[in-house]
Amino acid sequence: MTCKRCASEQIVRNGVVREKPRSKGKACGLNFIEGDGRVKEAVAVKKALAVIVYSLGKASCGLLGKIFGHARSLTYRWIGEEAAKRPEPVIAGDLKERECDEMGHFIGSKKPSSGSSQRWSVAHGELVPGLSAVVMLHRSSGSTTKSNL
Q1: Average pLDDT over residues 17-42
Q2: Judging by beta carbons within 10 Å of its beta carbon (0-12, 13-18, 19+), is residue 84 exposed, middle or buried?
Q3: Each residue of 93-149: pLDDT tens digit?
Q4: Cβ atoms of 132 and 118 closer than 8 Å
Q5: Whole-angstrom Cα distance, residue 37 to residue 3?
Q6: Strands of 77-149, DSSP E
Q7: Cβ burial 51-62 (10 Å sphere, 16+ → b, else e)
Q8: Distance between CA atoms of 28 and 84, rounded to whole angstroms?
Q9: What's the rounded Cα separation, in Å, for the pair 106 and 99?
Q10: Is 104 helix (H, G, I), strand (E, B) or coil?
Q11: DSSP H helical segments within 56-142, as ranges?
Q12: What is the pTM of this model?
């Protein structure tokens, strides 16, 4: 058995709670119960629904907290926990990068009287068949120009 906080194997027995033996980590001092599975089904359903609605972009953490009757910080933590379980996205090597102005009809002329007259970096790629993503970033003054057209 290891400590739930620091993963140390130096633990001692520290009483009984809810008819289960309680342990204490020597390194961090955390009291814990092995296999403490106090997850209510209703809360698990709320958590799953909150993550789905948030990932669709239809609600904020504050709104989800109001809907489910929990604090916005709790819904934020639910979403963060689920996001931590997901693997990092892989950027394909054939991703093309283009440079364009935020006002497309002024590209090439770069009239300083219209828009911010600063260029933006746009990356477009297809995540899965039928689902593409476009990322626009404002170019900083110290960045280099690279084009893979």
Answers
A1: 84
A2: exposed
A3: 776 665 555 555 555 555 554 445 556 666 777 777 777 777 766 655 555 555 555
A4: no
A5: 16
A6: 96-101, 119-128, 131-138
A7: bebbeeeebebe
A8: 24
A9: 13
A10: helix
A11: 61-68, 72-85
A12: 0.42
pLDDT of 122: 66
Q: Is 50 exposed, middle or buried (0-12, 13-18, 19+ CB in 10 A)?
A: buried
Q: Tell me how far apart the alpha carbons of residues 89 and 127 are, in angstroms, rounded to a whole number.
A: 9
Q: Are 125 and 91 in contact (CB under 8 A)?
A: yes
Residue 35 confidence (pLDDT): 73
- pLDDT of 1: 82
Between the alpha carbon of residue 126 and those of residues 52, 96, 129, 130, 149, the distances in Å are 22, 10, 7, 7, 16
The number of residues in the chain equals 149
Please tell me the distance from the alpha carbon of residue 83 to that of residue 90, in angstroms, as a whole number: 15
CA angle 107, 110, 114 (to 5 degrees): 100
Model confidence at 76: pLDDT above 80: yes
